[in-house]
Amino acid sequence: MADGRPAVIRARPWAVACFLLPALLLLGALVVYPIGYSLWRSLFDAPGTGFVGLDNYREMFANPAIRRALQNNLIWILVAPALATALGLIFAVLTERIRWSTAFKLVIFMPMAISMLAAGIIFRLVYEADPDRGVANAILVSVNDTFSEGAPWPDARPRPDSGLEPGPEESLVATEPAAVGEPALLPLVGVAPPRVADAGQAVEPEPAPDAVVGVVWLDFAPGGGGDPGVVDENERGLPGMVVEAVRDGTVIATATAGADGTFSLPAEADGAELRLAASNFAASFNGVDWLGPTLVTPAIIGSYVWMWAGFAMVLIAAGLAGVPREMLEAARVDGANEWQVFRRITVPLLAPVLAVVLVTLMINVLKIFDLVLIIAPGSTQPDANVLALQLYFSSFGTSPNQGLGSAIAVFLLLLVVPVMIFNIRRLRQERKG
Question: Which domains does the chain have, with CATH numbers?
Answer without folding.
Answer: 41-131+291-432 (1.10.3720.10), 164-280 (no CATH)
